[in-house]
């Protein structure tokens, strides 16, 4: 095939045990350290064209006309397409609500919305051509916040909504509303000795994955198309792409190309349909790669939020009630806003036992950039606010903030505000105890023999302090995150496992459509196959749509759900192998007839350890294969009025202690240490587990002190779409992140495991904020905190 | 325009290069060396780091025409470079993995998740260890402060560089 | 677009004379970003990497002649004693990779108020050596910055070198950014003590349309130091004096609100940096004085 960078099969292991519980190394690691691993932006095909997207320069406008004639005349241009060129009547897509136009239809609703697409023989040709498309915008007023979106005369972001939420929302600029009401807040309020109210603001965070949105669409002889792309969920993409192309799903083949991080930002479509459209139009392979500027417009962000909380407690430190109103800005299109609302509402009280709760969460439609999934998904914003409230309550009560949390910590058996019992370990108090018990990092570590080492001070290399104005602060936070898809969603994964002899040894092959985005799912799948099938050598196939859906690589669910599917498929394979063995060798040994036979070390063994046969001999030249669709326990929707219902599958908990040093005069922050304790149920790969926890922690740190997409409230235009002005933490901003892993099994989950990836992103941000408050004495009700908030006390 | 230069020890040429192309584009799209990554194209992430005449630079900020006649080392050349530095040294004693000791350390320490930042970090860290065989943590952080990683929180990257330095010290 | 590759300085000047719109490129830090992001399509790009002279420096009796393209990493490594303020500023530039490529000439050519070198050059006292086929001239740094991203260069001129006075006293440089590395200045401050002339010079970055000196603050401090005999008696700068100096430095700012910071914060931060850098340099001066006296 005259193409390069196509996904390769990863084979690993020989002679290593490498089952679950071990820190086996990534099967794709060697390719990644040599530069040979093919990411979606690395793909190349003979004769390929480059696609370019023309995006709106304004946030809200009618499109009076589009003139592409000059663009088409540019030598080297093969196609220009606008809304009018779309091949079918299906011209919108969307994860939950199909409200997003493939190309703008007479109107744009946010800055950077795709208006036209171009294919040309060189990216520069495509850019020059796109620049010659004339679009006549008639600007419309923008709605950018709750006040403007819900004003009586507010412009409607979507005039003709017909989605299933519209009947229940108080205003058409509200995507979805979810109350959660439990107990009698009014009388609980009477019992409260202390009541604390607070208004909090959470900025717009970007996933900032490093591998830009990209992929290659190759037209196929049957009139279909093969798309190689970086995504989080191949089958969800497929369901949205095929109808727009007017193709049956089996003629849109999808293969996962290398993914350079995701964090929720690849759950929605980006360039997928555009590349396919251009490939089908030109009959040539088309590659699209966003640059960083475009990436900021090419994916949804974390919802910014305004949160109003009221907490009450008795003098002895028991929470009486929590009232909360959480307003999430969903931007111009729905994306996963409804599910984010469900999470914010149901997890909005945090990991605490409270009998009286009145929470309301809504997501707005505005002309701001669309927001959707990002690591922590609706639970992050709330955690920032309720943990600030917990500190303020503790201070008012004169209690230690950790002890106060422990006093109210939920545990196994506690009822959630949704009425759902927490039916597996919930070691909230223990996690807090562990981070608190850690020794403190030494003071004044910047002092070296030759003066101050500025690298260890706030400001770092910028040389702003040699110790002047620097005050240390310590803060704690803990959070709760659901694992897996909730609210009655049919959340399943498919795995195909094959066992055969190759090169004289038994080899297991695992084939799923799971998107490996860096989290290490491929490592874990191989470990599960080794454990279940007792083979050293495991091959992990590239993920594609030739096998059934593996669901999304999100919601901390892949090890749980696709891991569960792999385990079950392995069990089926094992049964078949044993059946084969009984047929072939049964008469040779009476133990074949018994139960409890295992596959270990490439052999069939009894549970007493006696070797019955070599797998090589059992299999001969036969291959044994099984495919399994596996589901976690079903969930149910939340009641639309009360929010009651068993909506979640599993909960995940993490706690942080942040130690910061703040230059109180300049408002600069150095995080000195950010310790985390998390319960993971069972660490299938301890190295990967700590890596996930540290990575999530660092993203939370970024949200605390620097990361924010700034949108101009007058124009709804993004002001900092670049890595120059959207700052993510460098290695000099990120401290030591010691991790304490608990393994308290959840009996409902495969191997007792608990989803890991998201919980550490929750508590990291509020812990850092609490530490900064401790150092400065300021209230700080907004994140990220900026230097001017610390010097003027306005944050 | 046409450009002749040396990449990973081999003479290479690129024809019909547009004058505005970066070295990064030429490596990735014309020479089939996509190991250097295109995460920001504005010098803010370090994922495209290569050595230009021995010095780590962001290849996205080097105009293709500027490398005429010069020497470039990319992540694809790191194993060879390590081999030249210490003839016969392999990543792990007794095992020839085709990886440089630093590449092996990144794997062993779990410093690779999505891996998009990895090539740039490897080139930068490799050069730092060449100058600084026994770096302090602050030295490592300073040397790698131009390389963003979004997955790991950097802890295991620190571990990897420490591990590579320690293994080298052991070997003597 | 055409790519010009002059092999030497004379050739570069001739090319620039022939194509005044040609954009010189050395480290590429500014130019390549503009090209990569489609913000700029110059008709001609002129590569200066081949002009070896631009990568050299000479340490003279009173001043350093610093080639326009000497990378920041070399300044940090080799000129810390002669140009301490500029060496500190160099260390705050972007990332190690950028410091390996970028030089002062690029900062001056772009003339962004956020360029890291400017406050150090203003404080140390520098002259920009500009040249065209018409001839060479030296532009005092105070006259170099003419507007937001505008400088005193004529269209046919190129920057050949910067002449920076060798430090005759302590110099300091601070920069505020919202990240501990790889960050564009929210604002920056450079300060140099010149015991030989008994003067103090300052430079402020990112807090006005151009890099500026805090002249009123300098005059105030010069007078106060003189009046108190501080250059001779080596007494400490009292807090009220430092604060007055800081306030005057803050008052010299004419900042804007932007995505990197507010005008109010910039003014405030410049004041804090002014006070701290004055303390650091003055204490260093006193320390050096004591050492000298002790030896004598």
TrEMBL record, chain A:
<dbReference type="InterPro" id="IPR046867">
    <property type="entry name" value="AldOxase/xan_DH_MoCoBD2"/>
</dbReference>
<dbReference type="InterPro" id="IPR016208">
    <property type="entry name" value="Ald_Oxase/xanthine_DH-like"/>
</dbReference>
<dbReference type="GO" id="GO:0004854">
    <property type="term" value="F:xanthine dehydrogenase activity"/>
</dbReference>
<dbReference type="Pfam" id="PF01315">
    <property type="entry name" value="Ald_Xan_dh_C"/>
</dbReference>
<keyword id="KW-0560">Oxidoreductase</keyword>
<dbReference type="InterPro" id="IPR017609">
    <property type="entry name" value="Xanthine_dehydrogenase_dsu"/>
</dbReference>
<dbReference type="Pfam" id="PF02738">
    <property type="entry name" value="MoCoBD_1"/>
</dbReference>
<dbReference type="InterPro" id="IPR008274">
    <property type="entry name" value="AldOxase/xan_DH_MoCoBD1"/>
</dbReference>
<feature type="compositionally biased region" description="Basic and acidic residues">
    <location>
        <begin position="629"/>
        <end position="639"/>
    </location>
</feature>
<dbReference type="InterPro" id="IPR036856">
    <property type="entry name" value="Ald_Oxase/Xan_DH_a/b_sf"/>
</dbReference>
<feature type="region of interest" description="Disordered">
    <location>
        <begin position="439"/>
        <end position="463"/>
    </location>
</feature>
<feature type="domain" description="Aldehyde oxidase/xanthine dehydrogenase a/b hammerhead">
    <location>
        <begin position="34"/>
        <end position="141"/>
    </location>
</feature>
<dbReference type="Pfam" id="PF20256">
    <property type="entry name" value="MoCoBD_2"/>
</dbReference>
<feature type="compositionally biased region" description="Basic and acidic residues">
    <location>
        <begin position="444"/>
        <end position="456"/>
    </location>
</feature>
<dbReference type="InterPro" id="IPR037165">
    <property type="entry name" value="AldOxase/xan_DH_Mopterin-bd_sf"/>
</dbReference>
Automatic annotation (TrEMBL), chain B:
<dbReference type="InterPro" id="IPR036010">
    <property type="entry name" value="2Fe-2S_ferredoxin-like_sf"/>
</dbReference>
<dbReference type="InterPro" id="IPR051452">
    <property type="entry name" value="Diverse_Oxidoreductases"/>
</dbReference>
<dbReference type="Pfam" id="PF00111">
    <property type="entry name" value="Fer2"/>
</dbReference>
<dbReference type="InterPro" id="IPR006058">
    <property type="entry name" value="2Fe2S_fd_BS"/>
</dbReference>
<dbReference type="GO" id="GO:0046872">
    <property type="term" value="F:metal ion binding"/>
</dbReference>
<feature type="domain" description="2Fe-2S ferredoxin-type">
    <location>
        <begin position="1"/>
        <end position="78"/>
    </location>
</feature>
<dbReference type="InterPro" id="IPR001041">
    <property type="entry name" value="2Fe-2S_ferredoxin-type"/>
</dbReference>
<keyword id="KW-0479">Metal-binding</keyword>
<keyword id="KW-0411">Iron-sulfur</keyword>
<dbReference type="Pfam" id="PF01799">
    <property type="entry name" value="Fer2_2"/>
</dbReference>
<keyword id="KW-0408">Iron</keyword>
<dbReference type="InterPro" id="IPR036884">
    <property type="entry name" value="2Fe-2S-bd_dom_sf"/>
</dbReference>
<keyword id="KW-0560">Oxidoreductase</keyword>
<dbReference type="InterPro" id="IPR012675">
    <property type="entry name" value="Beta-grasp_dom_sf"/>
</dbReference>
<dbReference type="InterPro" id="IPR002888">
    <property type="entry name" value="2Fe-2S-bd"/>
</dbReference>
TrEMBL record, chain C:
<dbReference type="Pfam" id="PF00941">
    <property type="entry name" value="FAD_binding_5"/>
</dbReference>
<protein>
    <submittedName>
        <fullName>Carbon monoxide dehydrogenase</fullName>
    </submittedName>
</protein>
<feature type="domain" description="FAD-binding PCMH-type">
    <location>
        <begin position="1"/>
        <end position="169"/>
    </location>
</feature>
<keyword id="KW-0285">Flavoprotein</keyword>
<dbReference type="InterPro" id="IPR036318">
    <property type="entry name" value="FAD-bd_PCMH-like_sf"/>
</dbReference>
<dbReference type="InterPro" id="IPR016167">
    <property type="entry name" value="FAD-bd_PCMH_sub1"/>
</dbReference>
<dbReference type="InterPro" id="IPR016169">
    <property type="entry name" value="FAD-bd_PCMH_sub2"/>
</dbReference>
<dbReference type="Pfam" id="PF03450">
    <property type="entry name" value="CO_deh_flav_C"/>
</dbReference>
<dbReference type="InterPro" id="IPR002346">
    <property type="entry name" value="Mopterin_DH_FAD-bd"/>
</dbReference>
<dbReference type="InterPro" id="IPR036683">
    <property type="entry name" value="CO_DH_flav_C_dom_sf"/>
</dbReference>
<keyword id="KW-0274">FAD</keyword>
<dbReference type="GO" id="GO:0016491">
    <property type="term" value="F:oxidoreductase activity"/>
</dbReference>
<dbReference type="InterPro" id="IPR005107">
    <property type="entry name" value="CO_DH_flav_C"/>
</dbReference>
<dbReference type="InterPro" id="IPR051312">
    <property type="entry name" value="Diverse_Substr_Oxidored"/>
</dbReference>
<dbReference type="GO" id="GO:0071949">
    <property type="term" value="F:FAD binding"/>
</dbReference>
């Amino acid at each position: 095939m005259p193409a390069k960078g196509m996904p390769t099969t990863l084979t690993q292991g020989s002679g290593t045990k490498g089952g679950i519980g071990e820190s086996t190394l990534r099967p794709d690691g060697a390719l990644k350290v040599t530069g040979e691993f093919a990411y979606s932006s690395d793909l190349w095909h003979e004769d390929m064209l480059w696609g370019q997207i023309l995006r709106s320069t304004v946030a809200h406008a009618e499109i009076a006309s589009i003139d592409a004639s000059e663009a088409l005349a540019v030598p080297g241009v093969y196609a220009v397409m606008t809304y009018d060129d779309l091949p079918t009547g299906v011209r919108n897509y969307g994860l939950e609500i199909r409200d997003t136009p493939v190309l703008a239809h007479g109107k744009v609703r946010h800055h950077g919305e795709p208006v036209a697409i171009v294919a040309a023989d060189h990216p520069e040709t495509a850019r020059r051509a796109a620049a010659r498309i004339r679009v006549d915008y008639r600007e419309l007023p923008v709605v950018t916040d709750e006040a403007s979106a819900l004003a009586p005369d507010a412009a409607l972001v979507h005039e003709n909504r017909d989605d299933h939420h519209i009947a229940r929302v108080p205003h058409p600029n509200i995507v979805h509303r979810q109350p959660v009401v439990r107990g009698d807040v009014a009388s609980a309020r009477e019992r409260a000795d202390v009541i604390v109210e607070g208004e909090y603001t959470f900025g717009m965070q970007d996933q900032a994955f490093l591998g830009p949105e990209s992929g290659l669409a190759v037209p196929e002889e049957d009139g279909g198309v093969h798309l190689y792309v970086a995504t989080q969920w191949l089958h969800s993409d497929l369901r949205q792409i095929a109808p727009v192309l007017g193709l049956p799903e089996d003629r849109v083949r999808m293969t996962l190309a290398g993914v350079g991080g995701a964090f929720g930002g690849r759950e929605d479509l980006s360039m997928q349909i555009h590349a396919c459209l251009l490939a089908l139009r030109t009959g040539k392979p088309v590659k699209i790669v966003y640059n960083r500027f475009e990436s900021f417009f090419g994916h949804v962000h974390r919802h910014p939020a305004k949160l109003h909380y009221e907490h009450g407690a008795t003098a002895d430190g028991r929470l009486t009630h929590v009232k909360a109103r959480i307003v999430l800005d969903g931007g111009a299109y729905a994306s996963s806003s409804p599910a984010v609302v469900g999470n914010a509402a149901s997890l909005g009280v945090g990991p605490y036992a409270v009998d009286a709760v009145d929470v309301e969460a809504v997501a707005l439609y505005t002309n701001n950039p669309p927001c959707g999934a990002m690591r922590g998904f609706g639970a992050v914003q709330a955690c920032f606010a309720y943990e600030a409230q917990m500190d303020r309550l503790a201070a008012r009560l004169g209690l230690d903030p950790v002890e106060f949390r422990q006093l109210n910590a939920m545990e196994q058996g506690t009822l959630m505000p949704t009425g759902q019992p927490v039916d597996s370990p919930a070691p909230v108090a223990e996690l807090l105890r562990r981070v608190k018990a850690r020794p403190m990092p030494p003071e004044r570590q910047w002092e070296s023999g030759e003066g101050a080492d500025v690298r260890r001070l706030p400001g770092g290399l910028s040389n702003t302090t040699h110790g002047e104005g620097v005050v240390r602060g310590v803060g704690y936070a803990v959070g709760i995150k659901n694992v897996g898809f909730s609210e009655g969603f049919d959340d399943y994964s498919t795995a195909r496992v094959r066992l055969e002899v190759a090169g004289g040894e038994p080899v297991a092959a695992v084939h799923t459509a799971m998107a490996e985005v860096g989290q290490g799912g491929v490592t874990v799948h191989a470990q599960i196959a080794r454990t279940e099938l007792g083979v050293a050598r495991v091959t992990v196939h590239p993920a594609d749509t030739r096998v059934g859906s593996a669901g999304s690589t999100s919601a901390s669910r892949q090890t749980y759900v696709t891991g569960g599917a792999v385990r079950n498929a392995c069990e089926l394979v094992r049964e078949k192998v044993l059946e084969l063995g009984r047929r072939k060798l049964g008469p040779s040994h009476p133990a074949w007839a018994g139960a409890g036979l295992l596959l270990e070390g490439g052999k069939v063994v009894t549970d007493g350890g006696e070797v019955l046969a070599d797998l090589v001999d059992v299999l001969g030249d036969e291959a044994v294969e099984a495919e399994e669709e596996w589901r976690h326990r079903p969930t149910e929707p939340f009641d639309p009025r009360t929010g009651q219902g068993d909506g979640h599958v599993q909960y995940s908990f993490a706690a942080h202690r942040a130690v910061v040093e703040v230059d109180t005069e300049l408002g600069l922050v150095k995080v000195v240490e950010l310790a985390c304790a998390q319960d993971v149920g069972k660490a299938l790969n301890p190295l990967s587990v700590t890596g996930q926890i540290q990575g999530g922690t660092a993203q939370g740190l970024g949200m605390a002190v620097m990361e924010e997409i700034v949108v101009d409230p007058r124009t709804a235009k993004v002001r900092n779409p670049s890595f120059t002005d959207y700052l993510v933490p460098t290695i000099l901003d990120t401290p030591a992140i010691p991790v304490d892993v608990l393994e308290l099994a959840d009996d409902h989950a495969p191997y007792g495991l608990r989803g890991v990836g998201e919980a550490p992103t929750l508590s990291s941000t509020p812990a850092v904020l609490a530490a900064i408050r401790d150092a400065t004495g300021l209230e700080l009700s907004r994140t990220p905190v900026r230097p001017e908030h610390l010097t003027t006390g306005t944050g | 325009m046409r450009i002749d230069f040396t990449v990973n020890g081999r003479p290479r040429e690129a024809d019909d290069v547009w004058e505005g192309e970066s070295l990064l584009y030429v490596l990735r799209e014309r020479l089939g060396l996509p190991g250097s990554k295109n995460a920001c194209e504005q010098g803010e992430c370090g994922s495209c780091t290569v050595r230009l005449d021995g010095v780590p630079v962001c290849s996205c900020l080097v105009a293709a025409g500027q490398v005429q006649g010069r020497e470039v080392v990319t992540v694809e050349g790191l194993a060879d470079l390590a081999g030249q530095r210490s003839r016969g040294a392999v990543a792990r004693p007794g095992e020839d993995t085709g990886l440089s000791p630093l590449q092996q350390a990144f794997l062993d320490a779990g410093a690779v998740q999505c891996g998009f930042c990895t090539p740039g970090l490897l080139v930068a860290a490799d050069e730092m260890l060449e100058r600084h065989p026994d770096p302090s943590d602050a030295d490592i952080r300073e040397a790698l402060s131009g390389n963003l990683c979004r997955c790991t929180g950097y802890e295991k990257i620190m571990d990897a560089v420490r591990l590579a330095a320690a293994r080298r010290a052991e070997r003597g | 677009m055409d790519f010009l590759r002059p092999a030497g300085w004379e050739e570069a000047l001739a090319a620039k004379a022939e194509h005044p719109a040609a954009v010189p490129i050395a480290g590429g830090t500014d130019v390549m970003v503009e090209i990569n992001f489609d913000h700029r399509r110059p008709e001609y790009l002129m590569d200066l990497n081949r002009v070896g002279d631009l990568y050299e420096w000479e340490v003279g009796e009173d001043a350093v002649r610093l080639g326009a393209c000497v990378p920041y990493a070399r300044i940090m490594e080799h000129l810390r004693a002669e140009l301490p303020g500029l060496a500190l500023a160099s260390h705050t530039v972007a990332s190690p990779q950028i410091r390996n490529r970028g030089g002062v000439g690029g900062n001056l050519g772009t003339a962004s108020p956020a360029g890291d070198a400017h406050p150090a050059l203003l404080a140390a006292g520098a002259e920009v050596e500009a040249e065209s086929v018409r001839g060479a001239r030296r532009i005092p740094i105070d006259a170099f910055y003419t507007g937001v991203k505008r400088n005193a260069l004529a269209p046919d001129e190129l920057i050949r070198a910067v002449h920076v006075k060798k430090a005759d006293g302590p110099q300091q440089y601070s920069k505020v950014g919202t990240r501990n590395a790889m960050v564009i200045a929210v604002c920056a401050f450079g300060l140099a003590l010149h015991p030989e002339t008994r003067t103090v010079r300052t430079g402020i970055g990112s807090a006005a349309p151009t890099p500026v000196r805090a002249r009123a603050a300098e005059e105030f401090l010069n007078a106060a130091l003189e009046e108190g005999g501080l250059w001779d008696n080596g007494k400490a700068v009292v807090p009220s004096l430092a604060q007055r100096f800081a306030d005057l430095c803050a008052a010299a700012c004419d900042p804007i609100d932007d995505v990197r910071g507010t005008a109010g914060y910039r003014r405030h931060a410049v004041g804090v940096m002014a006070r701290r850098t004055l303390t650091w340099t003055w204490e260093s001066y006193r320390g050096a004085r004591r050492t000298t006296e002790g030896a004598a």
